[in-house]
Design goal:
It is a single chain. By secondary structure, the protein is mainly alpha-helical. It has one domain. 78% of the residues lie in helices and 0% in strands. It has three helices and no strands. Helix 1 runs antiparallel to helix 3. The longest helix has 37 residues. The chain is elongated, with a radius of gyration of 21 Å.
Length: 99
């Protein structure tokens, strides 16, 4: 894999996570400013199954906050890819043209 491709991959990942973070932040804002509803809750059969199996995609404020946190860490990981590619490029340049 070429260095320029590594840079492109890292940059693409960073951009994608900033977009995901923006969506999640908007969801947090919307969920946190919606009018309150009474505490009475009725669970559907699907919701009960999801709770029992742990296979729930979630919704609302909690999901949006998790998505926001996840986007943050994925963006940081992609920035590390960019940093590593930069360091590798510098080391290769030093090997080709020692100072």
């Amino acid at each position: 894999m070429s260095i320029s491709r590594v840079f492109q991959t890292g940059l693409s990942g960073v951009r994608r996570q900033f977009e995901n973070a923006e969506v999640a932040a908007a969801e947090v804002l919307q969920a946190s400013t919606e009018p309150s509803t009474p505490d009475r809750v009725e669970l559907s059969a699907d919701a009960r199954r999801a709770a029992e199996t742990g296979n729930s995609l979630g919704s609302g404020l909690e999901k949006a906050m998790v998505d926001l946190r996840l986007s943050k860490y994925l963006a940081v990981a992609n920035m590390k890819v960019l940093q590593t590619a930069d360091e590798t490029t510098r080391e290769l340049a030093d090997l080709i043209q020692p100072t």
